[in-house]
Design goal:
By secondary structure, this protein is of the alpha+beta class. Helix 2 runs antiparallel to helix 4. It has six helices and three strands, in the order H-H-E-H-E-H-H-E-H. The chain has one domain: 3-Layer(aba) Sandwich (NADH Oxidase).
Length: about 170
């Protein structure tokens, strides 16, 4: 599959086979894609937490109540350190959120390439994650995603509803 097929076929998955674990080498390749992501000033102000143990999964799952989220055998939490991120001197813009977003996107696309379902989640309880993961005041989480195989018989819809090219692109 080429890159353009990959990005056109990727979609948010909301159904996971809780009994089918992802091999460690596949998980490592996906996580390495995040490690290789660009960041402002090459600061790499991130850490990727892969939650896989039953005890931690139970705790982390409480941050997002959707039933399908409870079935994922792995949950990725991308966290970063605001004080380690690049800051634009002219206006104080801190690039942490951008950096974490790029890393998450790299991993989601790598997961798609590996046949692993994901679903970008931003509507989680940060308070629960802070408590469960012991996050400090300087650590930020902007997104999480489940990782998992889809159940047997599950069919992707591949029906992205996107604005027309001419509506979002302007050549100047």
């Amino acid at each position: 599959m080429n890159y353009y097929e990959l990005i056109s076929q990727r979609e948010s998955i909301r159904s996971y086979d809780p009994d089918r674990k992802i091999p460690e080498d596949v998980l490592s390749r996906i996580l390495n894609a995040g490690r290789l992501a660009p960041s402002a000033g090459n600061r790499q102000p991130w850490q990727f937490l892969l939650v896989s143990s039953p005890e931690m999964l139970e705790k982390v799952r409480s941050c997002y109540p959707a039933a399908w989220f409870q079935d994922a055998p792995h949950i990725l939490v991308v966290k970063g350190y605001k004080e380690k991120a690049w800051i634009r001197s002219k206006d104080g813009y801190n690039a942490l959120e951008t950096d974490l977003t790029i890393a998450m996107d790299h991993m989601i696309l790598a997961a798609e390439y590996e046949g692993i379902g994901t679903c970008w989640i931003a509507d989680f309880s940060l308070d629960i994650l802070k408590t469960v993961l012991g996050l400090t005041d300087g650590e930020r989480v902007f997104a999480i995603t489940p990782f998992g195989y889809t159940p047997v018989g599950f069919n992707k819809k591949n029906q992205k509803n996107r604005k027309p090219f001419a509506e979002v692109v302007k050549f100047i």
